[in-house]
Design a protein that fits this description.
47% helix; 18% strand; 142 residues; 5 strands
């Protein structure tokens, strides 16, 4: 038996980098893993790789800065798994440059993904976690 057997994890930013590695680790430890990321083929590839390794996973295309998409994603997790034990907020973007040269739209986009997205996934995940007796939330930022 592995450490996360019978648990369900949600990982944002799961299509690549730290998010994909986290999703793979959770699956290897026995968790069913819901992968959230923008609707690209990368998320499906990560889900396919986890499945090929024997893990249980589901890629849910989701823009974390959009509340309706986050709410729908958590509802999909509830319908598919009936619970949520772990939320790993890893989705994040960065725009580089000098502050005085940065377009306000770039700043707003970073705040929407990195801060609002984290808030929205927590807001919509906590009720499902509470219904199952609790859970854990990990928020990554840089």
């Amino acid at each position: 038996m592995t450490r996360l057997t019978n648990q369900v994890a949600l990982v944002t930013g799961a299509a690549g980098g730290i998010g994909a590695a986290t999703a793979r680790l959770f699956a290897a430890e026995g968790a069913a893993v819901a992968l959230l990321d923008l609707p690209t083929s990368a998320g499906a590839r990560v889900a396919d790789a986890i499945g090929a390794a024997g893990g249980r996973t589901h890629f849910i295309p989701c823009d974390v800065k959009e509340e309706d998409q986050v709410a729908a994603a958590v509802e999909t997790i509830r319908a598919d798994y009936g619970r949520l034990d772990i939320l790993a907020n890893i989705a994040g973007i960065n725009r580089y440059g000098r502050v005085e040269d940065m377009p306000v739209a770039d700043w707003d986009l970073m705040m929407a993904v990195n801060v609002r997205g984290m808030f929205l996934t927590i807001k919509h995940s906590v009720p499902l976690m509470r219904a199952g007796g609790g859970g854990g939330i990990v928020n990554l930022s840089s």
